[in-house]
Structure formats: structure tokens, C-alpha cells
Amino acid sequence: MKSEGLPEKMSFDPAGAAKALQNIAPKSLSVMEVCGTHTVSIFRSGIRSLLPPGYRLVSGPGCPVCVTDQGEIDTALSLLETGAVLTAYGDMFRVPGASGSLSSKRGEGLDARVATSAMDALLLAEQKPDREVVFLAVGFETTAPATAAMILEARRRKIRNLSVLSFHKRTPPALELLASDQDLSLSGFLLPGHVSVILGHEPFRFLAEEKGIPAVIAGFEPDQILSGLIDLALQQRKGIAKLHSVYGRAVRPEGNPKAREIMDEVFENRSASWRGIGEIPSSGLALREEFAAFDAEKKFSLKPLPGKPHPGCRCGEILTGRITPPECPLFRTHCTPVSPVGPCMVSGEGTCGAYFRFFKTTGGIA
Amino acid sequence: MIVLCLAVPYIIELIMDDNRATATSGAVRTEIRTDLIDSPSPGDTVLVHAGFAIEKLSPEDSEELFALWDEVRRLAGENVV
Predict the structure, then answer these.
(1) What is the ipTM, given to two decimal places?
(2) Do B62 and A89 touch (CB under 8 A)?
(3) What sign results for the dihedral spanned by CA atoms A210, A216, A220, A226?
(4) Can you give the residue range of the structural domain that contains A36?
(5) Which pLDDT value is given to residue A83?
């Protein structure tokens, strides 16, 4: 299949890219790949093996499952106990909460169902008018417009037995926090392509213009990621900090205004708790008052539960690039994809899951 | 299982109503929502995420990407350190 981002006439040239990086990369470069899909693609394609020794890649808080706070998982589990049908993306099912997971609750006879789209919840609510159906909404700005569109559709169809438990999160506030973190001293951001499809360039411009950190929006094919990493090295070499995009086909500078309009019609910003980071002002999305009838928190009088993650789990430090998974004592011993302790090991996009699959126990790249 | 960041290109085949279309990707034909894009038409290539088209893909490629790889090739051929 043709690459999503590179022109047909240009061939992917890993050897040339490696040589270029050897020539241009500064001795020390620390780049955060924000998106979990980037993390996995970087491992799968062997891009790490092309990087010079000083080019360090750290994973960021870009896996929606991983950043969902423990308290939010526990809130979802408590909702299941009310007898409602809870629908959620499949990635969420094995994330452990204080009293089990959606998967284990289903094993106990409670009604949790996998959704591949927010619309699945709406259709289920129509099929089962005698049941309360709740959609557990996680994800960033890529996913939130779909939830919003579903709510608008539910209002049009006058569906009364459907609500949304919104744990959607906004990317820019988390990046602002990480960009300001002196301990991390990041020298570049590889920005998530599909969040940028919605948001466009503007919300990320502050990284370069205010924080002085180069940033590149990239797609998920290895050639696009490599292009982004080279661009960041070039910017360092030139001593400049700009926001670039190497995902030209899909990401327009203005993003997708229609999707944002729908998202803004339904949601408003609120403070949100991120696993491993804590509370970040304006980083979450709550339903606006006019959509209160579809707000599961209001409908079921849910109170935010304090998160009590496993004491040994270091997902938080991993999500903020402070340590890599092999530095966590639970990694590969007590925490595996079959029996995950934390969400970073559960999700297909989680950093721990990616390291488990691709990183040799000897410390090398598989 | 859905990978939450993933979006897959589909080609719109048939417009069903204001907010729905059928679309194909390889051998897969499915119904997608078109609420989030303007004026979907048969033949449009769209990025689909969690059942919703989130963007049309334009046939033009990135000039910026061309320029970057031109520079990469130049640097790969030169000892610039």
C-alpha cells in the first residue's frame, strides 16, 4: 500500500536517513513522541536503531487509556454496579480499577459491552429502551468530536435512556505542563497526527514560539515519523524552534473547524485528572449544561473517586517521560500484557505494552 | 478492539443521508458517519476514526515534506559536522 504521507515519487530511504541523522543530530537530543501510536510504530519499524546514540526518544501522555485516571476507572466501575449497560472502547476493558476491571465485572454478570464507535451506544439505547445505556467516553480531540456528534444525534432522536461519562482530555494543556518541566528538558515534540487533524496547527504553536521547543506534527507511517525526527534534529542544528507538519495530506493548518464546532457545542473545558500527572486545569471536557440530560455524572449523581493506583506501578513516571518501562520493578515480572498491573501495559498503544513486545530483556531493541 | 489514535482511509461509495455513508477500505465495506466533514461525496477519500470520518484527504502532497527530504538527501551526501 502506498504510504499515507510520502509522495509516490519519493522512496523511503532508511539508510540515507540514518546517515543524515549521524551528520546533523546534536550530541544530545531528547524528543518526546506524544502519541502512543507513534511509540508503537517507532518500535515496530526499528526506527530507534537508526538514531545516533545521543538521540533519545521518550514517550509522552498520548495513550488515552493510559492517562485515564484510576479514580475515573473506579467511577466507571461504580456506575456498572447501578445496573446500567456500560459501553466502552475495547482498550478500556482490562484496565484494572480498585475493585476489578470492566472485563472482570462482565464476568461477574454485570453488563459491560465493547463499542467500536460512540454510535454503538446510541443504537443499543434504541434497541433497549427499558435499560439505561452509558457510553464511557475517553480519548483526546480526535475522539471527542465523535462523542459530541453522537450526543447531538441522540437529542435529535429524543433518546432518553442514553448518557455519556465524559473523561475526554485535551492535549495542549498537558503538553504545556511538560514543556515547562525543567527536569525533562525536552528538545523537541513529535506531535500526534490525528489530534492535529482536528485542532490544526494553532493550539501547538506555543511550544515553538513561547517555550522555544521545536515541534513537528507527524503521521504514523515510519517514513513520516522519521521525517519528523530528522526535522527536529535539523531545527536543533540550526538553532531554531518552529512548528512544522510532515503530515501534509490530512492536517490542514486550520484543522477541521466543523468537528471543533460540534465538539464546542456539546463540551466545555474543565479541570481533569491525568494518571501520573495529576490535575491539569482546562484539560478535560465536560458536557455543557444544556446537555445535562445526557451527562451520566448528573444522571447517576456520580462523585469523583480518588484514584488509588497500585503502589508499585510507575505508569505515571513513564507517561511523563521520566523513566522507561524497564526501569519499573514490576515490568515483565508482575506486570505483563496477560496480567497487567497498570494501564500502560494494557493498551495496544501503551508504552509498557510496546516495550514488552519489542524490547529484549537484555536491554536491546528487539 | 479499537486503537484510539488510529484513523484509516476509506473511499466513500454511497451517501445514505445527511450524516451517513457507505465506504470501502480494501475489501472492507462499512457504514460511516459524516457529521464531522463538509459536503461528503462518492469518491472522496476520508480518514475514519471510531466510525466517523474526521477529514477528507486532498490529492496534493506536502511541499514541506518534499523540501525536507531534499535536504535530508543533501545532508546524507555531505559531511556537515
Answers:
(1) 0.85
(2) no
(3) negative
(4) 27-360
(5) 93
